[in-house]
Amino acid sequence: MRVPKFMPARSIAVIIVAAGKGERAAGGHADPKQYRKVGGRAVLQRTIEAFLAVEAVTQIVPVIHADHAEKYRALGLDDPRLLAPVTGGASRQASVLEGLKALAPSRPDRVLIQDAARPFASAKLIGEVIAALDQHDGALPVLPVTDTIKRSLDGISVSTTEDRQQLFAAQTPQGFRFGPIISAHMRSGTVRREFTDDAEIAEWAGLRVAMVEGERDNIKITHPEDFARAERILQGQSRMETRIGTGYDVHPFEPGDGVWLCGVKIPHHAKLQGHSDADVALHALTDAILGSIGEGDIGMHFPPSDMQWKGAASSVFLRHAGELVKQRGGRIVNLDVTIVAEAPRIAKHVPAMCAAIAEVLGVSASRVAVKATTNEKLGFIGREEGIVAIASASVEVPGLD
User: Fold this and answer.
1) Where does 4-CDP-2-C-methyl-D-erythritol 2-phosphate bind (predicted)?
2) What is the pLDDT of residue 7?
């Protein structure tokens, strides 16, 4: 039996630093590097979507240049966890501080700080940085330095050779406990020194910063030739492909005072019979999502013989199916549910139903459609003995071939 993983409640915010002009990587292009496309999508869009794919992330604040508001809007990003962008400062350090200030009212437990120009941070890497914060004030991904490093005092002749066994190249996301890092950033403004990254500010403030293993593909796009490397990375990764799944469920009526449909309770002279809350629509939709990724059906994950699911809200099942999509690096493209019933009438409840589904899955309500029809008085549905739901799900996941 597969048991869904329930993570402890914890707020984890992300700051995406995208306030630079990206001039070094311009290469004759009018757009700053974070708005140039790699594999058909803007670098900044890919970076944000990498964090939206991680369920543990609760909010994301982009920090953008004052002149780039229209470019950012043109990305068309839409997710309830994505906050309105804030304007950055004259330096990266100042921009991060603006992001921290924007998050201060919600006071998240943890904060990850990510360069917009690193679009390939994996969910695994992000998760390891988050996990390290359980034991440390800060954490960052690093790679061991493999080249021999020479130090020169005048830029002409070699002064000494560094011990590369003690040298590591830092990447982002860099993660911190929120209170200590915002305090460190506020105090860092009082010294005449430009810090190279947030981990250096944490070190200066006396915080304990741990290292986790970085990733070779987690490159920072800095120079024009880096775009060609980014395209090669994408070509080497599994290409995204669209999968379609369908679901069907039926539940009979029994005495009661209302039916659960798409996470909304609708008053009625009967209720639906079932082991859980008998939300026939969410059951069909859960099966559709599971089918799209080849994960069987709802009964495999939540057996009716298991009493822990007795009377459970069907949103638990739907959320689990959505988590499985995210674990595969995928995303939900759109969902379509058709409810077949003579009664109750659901038209006025459709907006609430779409909103409920969207909230459970962390997608925009515009990606959800709920419709209803009757069976023209025919069969068991026509006799008002039960309700049928049919659903389809379209998801995008990395290809397996």
Assistant:
1) 249-251, 275-276, 297-299, 373-376, 380, 383
2) 39
